[in-house]
């Protein structure tokens, strides 16, 4: 079974110029613009395109959508009568737009785990237009997240799925190589995990493999020439596919481990993926042999886990949790407290300990 999600994707160098026309085609009247600090110039351009539809602006966004920031933004959206948001930035800017859309109409959401048919895009409330500047992939998913008192809640609701996504590779051209590499590791994790979650299906497998091919190829090219527009385009295309794979397959053992490590020990979101993914692939991949072969061909390797590890190392992303600041005792505690999840092989405490101790030490699979 595969659920196709609604949504329109506009892609190409210079596509930022089309945001105004896309907004007009949606028939919305009052548009709030949310922009990450690095995207102020792009937000200025969008503001001009919006003309009379421009209803206000939020510049600068915090990571992981703190509830106070979400509440302030909801108030601003309400007071300015906004019926649409253009969010320009990475997962944090798009996450804030989703937080507003989630509460702008009265439908119910469901727990995280993949797409549902609950709600409808926009749901009669505020609709989101996303203009991504990183490769995190949130723009393609109906997944929302919000953080209160250090605890992140997530869920799935079609109301938060952006109605239009405008990918302009020029916007990510200046993303520093280090941030690029971590963001790509995050996207690659969406592709790889998508083949073994309980909701994995043949469509998603094809999307995930093509996403991995584009992301790995684009990453190698960006390492050689950071501002190469074609390479940046390849990464955005890969990010789009990775987000789509996450949207339909949901998350599994790997993402749940990363959320535990990020939430409890405050490890950085994108980098944690690079340390954990090769170790989860090492134990899981042989349970899905066809997908494993597809992903290996996409990565250009005969060993998925080792190939991922080597790519992340070459990109300069830390491949050990120790390097991210986790202590060995914390890794052990995480193994003890992790709640089992659906997975191709049973998730025992011993398996989680094996994954985390290797990820902590950064042992090549
Ligand atoms: P981010 O949005 O916080 O951006 C990272 C940093 O890069 C910020 O400082 C930002 O200002 C800067 N930046 C962004 N674009 C830039 C550019 N083009 N040039 C220079 N600097 C730039 O981080 P992210 O990795 O994009 O997103 C992470 C967040 O997204 C996390 O909260 C994560 O949980 C969430 N996420 C959600 C989903 C989902 O489906 N809901 C999917 C993936 C990630």
UniProtKB/TrEMBL annotation:
Alcohol dehydrogenase iron-type/glycerol dehydrogenase GldA domain ranges (all copies): 6-169
GO-annotated molecular function: alcohol dehydrogenase (NAD+) activity; maleylacetate reductase activity; metal ion binding
Pfam family, one: Fe-ADH
EC number: 1.3.1.32
Fe-containing alcohol dehydrogenase-like C-terminal domain location: 180-360
Family from the record: Belongs to the iron-containing alcohol dehydrogenase family.
Protein name as catalogued: Maleylacetate reductase
Organism: Kribbella shirazensis
